Amino acid sequence: MPILPIPDYSPPAMLANGHVQSIAPSLIRPVPHVDYVRERMDTKDGDFILLDWSFASGPGGSERLVIVTHGLEGHSRRKYVCGMARALNRAGWDVLARNCRGCGGEMNRLPRFYHSGEIEDLHATVHHALAVGRYRQIALVGFSMGGNQTLRYLGLDPDRVPREICAAVAVSAPCDLADSVRKLESLPAGRIYVEYLLHSLRAKVRAKHAMFPDIFDITGLDAISTFREFDERYTAPLFGFENAEDYWRKASSRPVLRDIRVPTLILNAKDDPFLGPRCYPEDEARENPNLYLETPESGGHVGFILLDPAGEFWSEKRSAAFLNEHTPA
Predict the structure, then answer these.
(1) Is 152 part of any domain?
(2) What is the mean pLDDT of the chain?
(3) Active site residue 272
(4) 235, part of any domain
(5) Is the pLDDT of residue 216 over 60?
(6) In the prediction, which pLDDT does 2 show?
(7) What is the rounded average pLDDT of the residues 188-205?
(8) For residue 230, what pLDDT is reported?
(9) CA angle centred on 229, ends 226 and 235, rounded to 5°
(10) Is residue 90 situated within a structural domain?
(11) What is the DSSP string of 70-112?
(12) Are 276 and 182 in contact (CB under 8 A)?
């Protein structure tokens, strides 16, 4: 322990496939309704982050808050974020869905945007939420890239994590970024996922080039077809890494999982096409009593489809249950 027993999640008929689970929600799921209140949070370096709040029982309701972080090139209005926010609101939590820099519908001011291991903006968001003065308990939920950021934040320097942080959930988290890239490169269908994300990243670089032509060279941008190429050319130099491998190694959360001090659930499906073997940290879960690893047979990447009368997916129900179990109201 705490490697949890195989959960009782059973996908609907015809959906017990990792690729279907990964793709179908974006195609067939209605957008879960959430009443967001947007806020622009200024950062110390002169930039800003867009935050979207939703409340359990109207403004001023709960004393418990969940900060939700989206995946690579996502934002707070993605279906999976809205679904989680709605489920957590129903479970009695206020939600703050943060948009990484350059996400959320408005480009940020500075050349930098975000990367898969960036945690300073999450730390600033936590303190911004604490400054509201209402929340006695704060939990964290992250999807995919946001899950890796969340785990890295909790384990890299646990002494600076505020005592109000009480629990966390990471859904479909690529704990080892290099292994995630290898997995995607090994699958015939991986080309589809990579191109989908690179299409959005290329657009972001073009927008940055218009703002900072001396920093962002777009010569040959359209020819970039792998994460390695993109990270070698843009991510690594922009954030001070030596190269893509150096970035993946230093930005991965797996090396710090043993140091997490709050109850934290990693929810990674065995058929996730984005996750290689090193993204299932069994040794770390056995050694750290605060780290819970749950690996359903199916679920895909940020999938976990459930035909539920309330419209909630299994990962949303499981996350709400875990947070409530470890942070009694």
Answers:
(1) yes
(2) 95
(3) yes
(4) no
(5) yes
(6) 63
(7) 95
(8) 98
(9) 115
(10) yes
(11) --TT--TTSHHHHHHHHHHHHTT-EEEEEPPTT-SSS--SSS-
(12) yes
C-alpha pair distances (Å), 277 with each of 174, 234, 271, 274:
10, 27, 11, 10
Please tell me which residue in 231, 301, 319, 326 is annotated as part of the active site: 301
From 22, 54, 62, 144, the catalytic residue: 144
Active-site residue among 176, 179, 271, 272? 272
Task: Record the tokens describing residue 263, joined without a space.
Answer: 């109850």
Q: Is 47 among the residues known to form the active site?
A: no
Dist. CA 50–CA 99, nearest whole Å: 5
Residue 7 lies in a domain: no
Structure tokens at 160: 């600076």
- The domain in which residue 161 lies consists of 18-177+252-326
Give catalytic status of residue 176 as yes or no.
Answer: no
Domain count along the chain: 1
Q: Please say whether the beta carbons of 50 and 106 come within 8 A.
A: yes
Give me the helices (H) in 167-243, please: 177-186, 190-211, 227-230, 236-239
Taking CA atoms, 274 is separated from 11, 251, 280, in Å, by 19, 16, 12
CATH number at residue 312: 3.40.50.1820
pLDDT tens-digit readout, 46-84:
999 999 999 997 656 789 999 999 999 999 999 999 999
- CA 156 – CA 83 distance, rounded (Å): 29
Mean pLDDT of the 32-47 span: 96
Instruction: With H, G, I as helix, E, B as strand and everything else as coil, classify residue 142.
Output: strand
- Confidence at residue 1, expressed as pLDDT on a 0 to 100 scale: 47
Q: Is the pTM of this model over 0.85?
A: yes
Q: Round to whole Å and give the CA distance between 14 and 32.
A: 23
In percent, how much of the chain has pLDDT > 90?
A: 90
> And the tokens for 122?
């999450």
Chain segment 242-292, per-residue pLDDT in tens: 999 999 999 999 999 999 999 999 999 999 999 999 999 999 999 999 999
